[in-house]
Amino acid sequence: MNSSSNHAPQLSEFLRRNSTYVILLAIVLGFAVLAPEFLTVNNLLTVALQSTLVALAAIGMTLAIITGGIDLSVGSVAALSGALAAGLATRGGLGTYPGLLIGLMAGAGMGLLNAVMIVWGRIPPFVATLASMAIARGLTLVYTQGRPIAGLDRAFTFWGSESLLGVPMPVWVLLVVAVLVHLLLSQTALGLHIYAIGGGEETTRLAGVNVGVVKVCVYVISGATAALSGLILTARLWSAQPNIGVGLELDAIAAAVLGGSSLAGGVGGIPGTLAGAFIIGVLSNGLNLLEVPSYNQQVIKGLVFILAVMLDYFIKQRRTVRTRRAPLAG
Amino acid sequence: MTENIPRLRLEHVSKAFPGVQAVNDVSLEVWGGEILALVGENGAGKSTLMNLINGVVPLDSGKIYLDGQPVTMDSPRRALELGITMIHQELALIPQLTVGQNIFLGREPRRWRFWIDWKRLYAQAQAELDRLGIDVPVQARVADLSIAQRQLVEIAKALSYNARLIALDEPTSALTERETETLFRLVRALRDQGVALIYISHRLEEVFELADRIAVMRDGQLVAVGPVQAFTPAEVVRLMVGRELTEFFPKVPTQRGEPVLRAINLRAGREVQGVSLELYRGEIVGLAGLVGAGRTNLARLLFGADRLEAGEIWMDGRRVEIRSPRDAIRLGIGLVPEDRKSQGLFLGQSVRFNAGAGLLERLSRLGFIDFRRINQTIKAIIERLRVRTPSLNQRVRNLSGGNQQKVVISRWLALNPKVLILDEPTRGVDVGAKAEIHALMSELAAQGMAILMISSELPEILGVSDRILVMREGRIVAEFSREEATQDLIMQAATGQLERRVAA
Ligand SMILES: Nc1ncnc2c1ncn2[C@@H]1O[C@H](COP(=O)(O)OP(=O)(O)OP(=O)(O)O)[C@@H](O)[C@H]1O
Ligand SMILES: [Mg+2]
Fold it and tell me: Are residues B453 and B314 in the same domain?
């Protein structure tokens, strides 16, 4: 009796902390049983590759969500960056690396625009980024005339299709970005202030933190990670497509929320977000392997999303009751 | 006062908000090595004056001198750099962060410029807490702390800046006597080190115990300043209110009627371990105890805000299930919660909305809200409690702290429940309004309401209650009648030196 009452909280505490990973594991195991091709090295690399695009955008999104904001422009920014980079590298004649760099900067620039609207224009993030979502998509269509830009060289496509040590380049990029942003969030003052703003913006301001600067950093990073996602997709497709990234913002938000971020702000983290992105990736891949028609896949994904969030919520609910008791006891 | 230049000098300082002249032409000096108490009714402009000094809101006109030098206080950051800090009236901690992170927010110990030195941060935070004798884990998330613990952390945070001028805006409103004493010791020690302190409180005993000088504000103006010896408490009250107040706790003896609510052996976790009690019509029951004794938890159980693990609740002789606040309200139970900001108010909404929120269903006809009657009802209560607001349309966020508290109370009074539970109802409320709230409680009891009042202020408990229950570690350990209760007996029971259960 005594030992069981000791173990139960530990188990639920473990589940609470790791609910995203537990769900990911469950889905992986499920597909491994249902579809024999699923657990092959090749297929897993494909999953990683597919998840990368969402994961990159979701990393920036996580920062915005932790501050209590949101960045709806990530999909359009991805498309704009990809198109600019491809266009400048080919018909612009700048060469691949200047093109990629400018593409990345364009993403960061859109992030800056978002931040300016939010911080100095005092426009709510939802509205500001909704506007820049339209602007970035429009600019992409204007620049590409609505047509693909092909003719990328090997140096460009290398970032989408080649591998290093058996791991595709996009996955490397993701790893580097994820580690950097994770360190930023967990080890630096800027990271702490990002959480602080989400928990109480006025309090953070009163503590002497320059809230505007923190938000600028957040949205610039979000623009940049969205741009990376767009550049990599362009490299993988061997051409810039003006309508890539439609709906990317929704997947990115889903990944962040599955990973434990709260849309109310103040809560979230990169490892969770990665797991969330992988849940989405694994689900698409597995359902494809099982030859589920794509219309039905959407329904299933929506259901899994709700289930996962509810599960997470219930586990946390049970815990809050417990902690509300604990501190008073002493 | 060895220096001959005041630490802080305000010259003709003014600040207006839409509809109110919050601070009106105030000139005031604060010296290093003194404690200046700032008193005044709710909405007198005390917090606003402090916000001006701390750069939280900009001045309309006037000048601020620090050590004789004119300064512009354009941001809280600037104030911090100049060595001015403030303990805000509304708790200003970030619930998602840990205690240590909150204390050092904005000035985290760093390595290589950007990296936080977590070890040093927590070590310093621990040292800070130890210095003040505050027993709260540094790594705990603030969300998991009780209100009193949060207040202590907030105090630790403000004091850790080693400031030269510290403003404390009602720092003791959530503290028990013991914690209050710790705070007083600290404040005095800081004064002796030459720090200038401004102390805002509605508890006049504290003011007279602690302060060297007193400044009284009324309607945004400074109406009196002088050494404590120059005032009597009654005078201060008269200056604050602008009229004579007869008695602090007017008590109308009431007739105890039949029982309304009966709780049998309630249990929930460690905080409530088998509580039985009975509330009668027409009776005010005071619930005393130390912070953490489980009083708030008990109130939340009775109101259906938390889940009951075991026990029975009976209303009017019928067994009832209270699964949610909605159930409780339907049965006629009301709760004025302890933490008004997060549980009691819609900060972004108007006074009318907040005070009338509970009335909507009752005062509707065929689903249409009868705004005229709601307005009438609310106006009467708001006037009665002297809520200082330019209009019923003012957003509650813009009211002073004490007036916010009055709005929460108005909502429940407007509902006129059978059983009203008040958790620290007069926290942060000025003397005049406090008397008004107490009078209203007596009146409601006389009309047959059963009232359960939780309070950490013993004079309030003793002054208002017909019967007093004392809780300790999740149990009711003593019961006193109004006549037999004394501060000493209650404290002994609350701290476990005395146990006596009068059979209910
Ligand atoms: N941001 C604001 N917008 C509009 N009015 C405000 C604002 N802040 C304060 N006020 C008004 O200014 C007046 C003074 O408020 P203040 O908070 O300084 O009072 P206080 O003396 O601290 O009262 P309390 O004892 O209740 O804390 C009040 O009438 C209040 O409604
Ligand atoms: Mg105030």
Answer: yes
Return the residue whose CA atom lies nearest to atom 16 of ligand 1: B45
* Domain assignment of residue B250, yes or no: no
How many Å from the N-terminal Cα to the C-terminal Cα in chain B? 58
The Å distance, Cα B150 to ligand 1 centre, comes to: 23
Residues of A in contact with B306 (CB under 8 A): 321, 324
Q: Is residue B406 lining ligand 1, measured as CB closer than 6 Å?
A: no
Shared domain check, B214 and B128: yes
Our answer on whether the CB atom of B45 is closer than 6 Å to any ligand 1 atom is yes
Determine the structural domain holding residue B371 and report its residue range.
Answer: 345-416
| B101 contacts A328? CB cut-off 8 A | no
From its phi and psi, is residue B327 left (phi > 0), alpha (psi between -120 and 50) or beta? alpha
Pairing of strands B20-30, B61-66: unpaired
A210 chain-B contacts, CB cut-off 8 A: 77
Closest C-alpha residue for ligand 1 atom 2:
B398
Please tell me if the CB atom of residue B403 comes closer than 6 angstroms to any atom of ligand 1.
yes
Please write the tens of the pLDDT for every residue from B185-207. 888 988 998 899 999 988 888 89
Residues of chain A with C-beta less than 8 angstroms from the C-beta of B77: 208-210
In A147-206, the residues whose Cβ lies within 8 Å of chain B are 187-190, 192-193, 195-196, 198-200, 202-206
B434 alpha carbon to ligand 1 midpoint, in Å? 18
Quick one: B141 and B63 in the same domain? yes
Residues in A closer than 8 angstroms to B140, CB to CB, are: 327
Each residue of B251-282: b (16+ CB within 10 Å) or e? beebeeeebbbbbeebbbbebbeebebbbbbb
Count: domains in chain B: 3
Residue B56 has its nearest CB partner, among A189, A192, A206, at A206
Both B286 and B374 in a single domain?
no
The two three-digit tokens of residue B163, written as one number: 């400031």
Residues 6 or more apart whose CB falls under 8 angstroms from that of B54 comprise B73, B76, B79, B84, B85, B86, B167
CA B392 from chain centre, in angstroms, equals 23
Show the tokens assigned to B90.
């509304």
Gap between the Cα atoms of B345 and B410, Å rounded: 11
**pLDDT of the residue at A7:** 55
- Over the stretch A273-287, which tens digit does the pLDDT of each residue have? 999 999 999 998 998
Q: Is residue B249 part of a domain?
A: no
- From A192, A208, A329, residue closest to B77, measured CB to CB: A208
Tell me the C-alpha to C-alpha distance, in Å, between residue A242 and each of A155, A170, B33, B115, B496: 21, 20, 69, 40, 74
pTM: 0.76
Q: Which of these three, B364, B382, B416, is where a domain ends?
A: B416
Residues B226 and B364 in one domain: no
Q: Which domains does chain A have, with CATH numbers?
A: 36-312 (1.10.3470)
- Assigned domain for B266 exists: yes
The CATH number of the domain holding residue B320 is 3.40.50.300
Strands B110-111 and B115-116: antiparallel
> pLDDT category, B239, cuts 50, 70, 90?
confident
For A199, which residue in chain B has the nearest alpha carbon?
B94
B contact test, residue of A203, A267, A318 with most B CBs within 10 A? A203
What is the 3 state secondary structure string of B439-487? HHHHHHHHCCCEEEEECCCHHHHHHHCCEEEEEECCEEEEEEECCCCCH
Kindly determine whether residue B96 and residue A198, on different chains, have CB atoms separated by under 8 Å: yes
Per-residue pLDDT reduced to its tens digit, B262-315: 999 898 887 888 899 999 999 999 999 877 788 888 999 999 888 888 888 999
